[in-house]
Amino acid sequence: MNESPTKQDSRRLVVAMLLLSVLAIISLMLGSTFISPLKIIAYIFDPANSPDQFTLEVLRLPRITLAI
Question: Which of 13, 17, 43, 55 would bridge 50 by S-S if both were Cys, CB 3.0 to 4.6 A apart?
């Protein structure tokens, strides 16, 4: 039994990963304080200079990690 992934399986995996990424970003934005997508992107590239560092690192990222 040589089961190789088909193109359809690969496409499903790519779509699932994209959907998971979008939902993770939405989850980072939502909470008692709204954090804009631009601030999240700025945090990803330079976490030390983000005013929302505590909220993202201590509250929201662990929540997303556990959900995945």
Answer: 43
Cα–Cα distance between 28 and 6 in angstroms, integer? 33
Residues 6+ apart with CB under 8 A from 52: 33, 35, 39, 43
Distance CA 26, CA 22 (A): 6
pLDDT at 1 over 60: no
Task: Report how far residue 16's alpha carbon sits from residue 52's, in angstroms, rounded to the nearest whole number.
Answer: 28
**Is the pTM value of this prediction over 0.85?**
no
3-state helix, strand, coil in the chain (%, to 5): 75, 0, 25
CA dihedral sign of residues 45, 48, 50, 56: positive
